[in-house]
Amino acid sequence: MTDSNNSHEAQGKKLKSQVKQSQQQYDQQEYQTIVKKHAPKKPLLKNCASAFFVGGIITAIAQVFFNLFSNAGLLERDANTVVVILMIFSGAFLTGIGVYDRIVKFGGAGAIVPITGFANSIVAPAMEFKREGFIFGVASKMFSIAGPVLVYGFITSIIVGLVAFTFM
Amino acid sequence: MSILFAFLVGGVLCLIGQLIMDLTPYNISTGHILVGYVTTGAIVSAFGLYQPLIDFGGTGATIPLTGFGHGLTQGVLEAIGTEGFLGIFSGGIAANAGGIAAAVVFGYVMAVVFNPQG
User: Fold this and answer.
1) B109, part of any domain
2) Which residues numbered 41-100 in A keep a CB inside 8 Å of some CB on B?
3) pLDDT tens for residues B61-106?
4) What is the ipTM, given to two decimal places?
5) Is the pTM of this model over 0.90?
6) Which of A22, A86, A141, A147 has the fewest CB atoms in 10 Å of its CB?
7) Can you tell me the distance from the alpha carbon of A138 to that of A134, in angstroms, rounded to the nearest whole number?
């Protein structure tokens, strides 16, 4: 008698916990849909304005340096290279001291699209995964975004080159 | 004056990126934007349409990643003129070697020297 009672109780408990679990799952789904419905819509206009502003400022600063170097007598090509190197250095440094993440938060694509954002995409994950070592942490994670960029950049330009070489 | 034009062109290129991020239903990440910009820049440059933008906007056109794509394509096309077939493979990277090396070296040094905040 007690045995069957016990097994009944156990079954009841099991059922109860199952019901509770599915109830929780259901609640969670319900919650997610409510969250989705009430999440603030991205303020498109404001995002675009700050992207335009931040992107513009970054490229305008680059232009200031470009003018400086070309006035100092550098050829256009060399001045371009120096400016690119300088912007990459700045982007990497600002990411290191934690400032660039704030610029990205404010400027969105305005901070991602310029080459400073490319530098940011190299330093940020590399810093994050430093504890995994200097080879498979830093050096490998550096290219988690920069790698695809280089791959598609190289491949596209080489395809263009092959087409141009064949047909011209 | 060149600074104002750089501001305008750079701003517009970034604005386009923001529109792509906000208006597409997919989750567009930094990687997607950067890869898309490099590829687009390289293709647009192949038709000779990117140089006019640089003539007008200066660094406003060269500093966004489309400018990197443009540099790759133009490097390849120029090297074909001087080196022939081999130029297809060496030209693009040679023309941008400074930027690529800077990205690797500074990226590595900064990541080693600094630690993530928070």
Assistant:
1) yes
2) 42, 44, 47-48, 51-60, 62-67, 80-85, 87-89, 92-93, 95-98
3) 999 999 999 999 999 999 999 999 999 999 999 999 999 999 999 9
4) 0.94
5) no
6) A22
7) 5
